[in-house]
Specification:
31% strand, single chain, 90 residues, mainly beta, six-stranded mixed β-sheet
């Protein structure tokens, strides 16, 4: 996975989270510590979508400061609807 950490918005991470914003684009995170949450991919290029995402998460195997790797899992469409978990990295 070539994606580097950039500011990413994951919905469903906090109990007081306002939720998805109308007019934005999201992919569902499937598997791993962020399972079921939505990642805001509004404005991402097709190359960025193909790279997937490294997302900071205190819930992963490496605790605070660790990252969870997610990659597009449904490559049959032009625009992925979900990213599958590929593992945790320090």
């Amino acid at each position: 996975m070539a994606a580097a950490w950039r500011g990413r918005r994951v919905y469903g991470a906090d109990l007081d989270d306002p939720g998805p914003v109308p007019g934005h684009s999201y992919v569902k995170l499937v598997g791993g510590p962020l399972d079921g949450r939505l990642l805001d991919v509004t404005g991402w290029s097709s190359l960025e979508l193909a790279d997937g995402a490294l997302l900071l998460s205190e819930l992963g195997a490496f605790g605070p400061g660790g990252r969870c790797a997610y990659e597009p899992a449904d490559a049959d469409g032009v625009y992925p609807t979900w990213f599958g978990w590929r593992g945790d990295v320090p």
